[in-house]
Amino acid sequence: MDEVRIDKWMWATRIFKTRTIASDACKKNRVSVGNVNVKPSRMIKAGDIISVRKPPVTYSFRVLDVTEKRMGAKLVPQYMENITPPSQYEVLEMNKISGFVDRARGLGRPTKKDRRELEQFTDVEQEMPVVGTFGFDWDESWLEET
Questions:
Q1: Which residues contact 132 (CB under 8 A, 6 or more apart)?
Q2: In this structure, which of 8, 93, 119, 121 has its CB flanked by the most CB atoms within 10 Å?
Q3: Of 40, 41, 65, 36, the residue nearest 51 (C-alpha)
Q4: What's 52's DSSP letter?
Q5: What whole-number distance in Å separates Cα of residue 51 and Cα of residue 34?
Q6: Do residues 22 and 5 touch, judged by C-beta distance below 8 A?
Q7: What pTM, to 2 d.p., does this model score?
Q8: 84, 43, 82: which is closest to 66 by C-alpha?
């Protein structure tokens, strides 16, 4: 076996969890061989370099051998070499960190602290005595004079 379909190879080497997901990635132009987007039926051979975009990172793999059968994770290094540049992993790390740092206050669901502050604020207002409508007693005697 000198050549194999790229979707089968990516599934067999555990780049994608299912062959359907591998095929969809090819159809969405997220997989390329030699900087050319490929279809799922593209045949690959040993020595090809495959780029897979899984936003925000673009992974690069060198094909060492071809296979159609899915294998255990320990056997994967016999069939491919990960040649992804370290800068891509830095982008991934920054994306993980920035997910929590860039959250603007007030967006999304209130925190438990926000809820407690709101409850404390509303409970204080309920305990305050209300005298009249505007905070003072009305003298209705002026109504009788007219």
A1: 138
A2: 8
A3: 36
A4: E
A5: 8
A6: no
A7: 0.64
A8: 43
How many Cβ atoms are within 10 Å of 128's Cβ, its own excluded? 8
pLDDT above 90: residue 47: yes
For residue 25, CA distances in Å to 40, 77, 79 come to 8, 22, 20
Instruction: State the Cα–Cα distance between residues 24 and 9, nearest whole angstrom.
Output: 14
Query: Dihedral of CA 46/50/13/83: which sign?
Result: positive
Partners of 7 in the β-ladder: none
Run of H or E residues at 48: none
Between CA 129 and CA 120 the distance in angstroms is 17
Answer left, alpha or beta for residue 83, where phi above 0 means left and psi between -120 and 50 means alpha.
alpha
Q: What is the pLDDT of residue 140?
A: 64
